[in-house]
Design goal:
Glutaredoxin; 5-stranded mixed beta sheet; globular
């Protein structure tokens, strides 16, 4: 009987030892699985190669900036307030500005008429948004006209707005800007006409019509 009891106890101990080892192995496997899950970032946590709003990170990196697809909805790209056309020579604006300038071919017959107009008392204000596709299309074209026309760039005021068509300038609201770009023509500081968003005919024809009073 003692022998049988001893054998029974040994068998039970062996069985218990086996279950414990199995539980430890299973727990270790579970821990490893959890560790691997933590080490592997989720899809949402993975960082894309080019973040959609990563424009600011490219400041001072001209090579990377040149190859970057810019998102002009990103406020870090906007030119706001009083700006100058020289700013269009820098990334991210140089590509759209230079391409639009080079590709536009004004009507030279209309340009001849523009050149004949008196412009001593003329000044122009351009209100634009670099986030706006219409602005990025029309402003380079207008500057091509200015170049061929020979109109002094220093007599043009450039104002950049945010996506709400607001610029951080005193009395900006007096311009009553509803859409961009808006080209406003002043003679002796009195508004004589404006081109809003897109020209009725062409930029050069609309400009000529404003200056000659033909609407």
């Amino acid at each position: 009987m003692r022998i049988i009891a001893t054998i029974t106890i040994i068998t039970l101990l062996a069985a218990l030892a086996g279950c414990s080892a199995t539980r430890k192995n299973r727990a270790a496997d579970a821990d490893r699985a959890r560790g691997e899950a933590v080490a592997e970032p989720s899809h949402d946590e993975q960082v894309p190669e080019v973040a959609p709003y990563g424009n600011a990170a490219l400041a001072g990196k001209p090579d990377e900036a040149a190859a970057h697809v810019w998102d002009f909805r990103d406020a870090t790209t906007w030119l706001l307030g009083e700006i100058t056309p020289a700013m269009f020579n820098n990334q991210p604006h140089s590509e759209w500005y230079h391409a639009g300038f080079a590709q536009y071919e004004p009507d030279m017959a209309v340009m001849k008429e523009l050149i004949e107009q008196k412009t001593d008392d003329l000044t122009i204000t351009i209100v634009m948004g670099t986030w706006c596709p219409d602005s990025r299309r029309e402003v380079p074209r207008f500057m091509k006209i200015i170049d061929l026309w020979g109109f002094p760039v220093e007599k043009i005021r450039f104002i950049g707005t945010d996506i709400n068509k607001v610029a951080p300038l005193e009395n900006f609201s007096e311009l009553a800007i509803e859409r961009v770009p808006t080209f406003i023509f002043f003679i002796n500081n009195v508004e004589t006409g404006r081109i809003i968003e897109v020209p009725v005919t062409s930029l050069e024809q609309d400009t000529r019509n404003i200056l000659t009073g033909e609407r």
